Recover the amino acids of this structure.
């Protein structure tokens, strides 16, 4: 049985709490957070506290807070004997300070409130300086996921950067598409099959080979019409820049 204390009350903390709660080999002892309202989500299921000087003893302490808050929370755990791990994709291991046992437990996924995540399909990236700590993190991760990766802080930093492009930036492009549909009385759901097919193709095609569209085929007239349709200068700039980069990538002069 692996005992866990969870520090944080946001989306990542909630999803991990729910996932660990379904595993018999894991025992969540306590959840800590500054906001009493956010703690209410956990109160009927586990011990909670807003006072970080009253942290229970545990095998693993998982810090699931914002990146900026990690270095503020970690000092409360310096006297604890258990392994301290944060869940950030971009914060280095050393940000945990002078912990005797420190590591990273990074689930590579976008966590939104109200969504159910199948953790079996979520890649979990782990890191630790001590081989025993790494083995403990690996054991915990394998309870959750079928895909566990041992990666360094530098690799994780690059992975997080790539994730911002494929997830956060892509989602913003979805937002632009949604706004265009809304402004023209069209349901955004019409685009859903196209979005899914684009993603599904990545199972058997690298992104380079899956690229389509007017920029790749140098359809200048269509691109000009599209830019003229857009009444938002920022959207025009995004369209022009992406079209330029795609054209350069595939040898088309735009």
């Amino acid at each position: 049985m692996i005992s866990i204390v969870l520090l944080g009350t946001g989306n990542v903390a909630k999803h991990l709490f729910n996932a660990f709660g379904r595993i018999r080999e894991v025992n969540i002892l306590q959840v800590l957070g500054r906001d009493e309202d956010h703690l209410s989500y956990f109160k009927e299921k586990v011990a909670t506290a807003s006072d970080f000087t009253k942290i229970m003893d545990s095998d693993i302490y998982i810090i699931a807070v914002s990146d900026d808050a990690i270095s503020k929370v970690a000092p409360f755990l310096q006297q604890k004997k258990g392994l301290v791990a944060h869940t950030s994709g971009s914060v280095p291991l050393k940000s945990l300070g002078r912990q005797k046992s420190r590591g990273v437990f990074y689930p590579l996924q976008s966590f939104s409130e109200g969504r159910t995540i199948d953790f079996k399909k979520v890649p979990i990236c782990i890191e630790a300086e001590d081989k025993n700590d790494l083995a403990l993190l690996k054991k915990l991760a394998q309870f959750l996921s079928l895909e566990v990766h041992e990666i360094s802080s530098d690799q994780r930093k690059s992975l997080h950067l790539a994730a911002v492009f494929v997830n956060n930036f892509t989602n913003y492009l979805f937002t632009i598409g949604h706004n265009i549909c809304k402004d023209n009385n069209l349901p955004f759901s019409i685009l859903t099959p196209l979005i899914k097919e684009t993603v599904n193709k990545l199972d058997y095609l690298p992104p380079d080979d899956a690229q389509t569209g007017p920029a790749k085929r140098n359809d200048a007239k269509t691109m000009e019409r599209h830019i003229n349709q857009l009444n938002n200068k920022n959207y025009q700039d995004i369209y022009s820049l992406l079209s330029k980069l795609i054209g350069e990538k595939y040898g088309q002069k735009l």
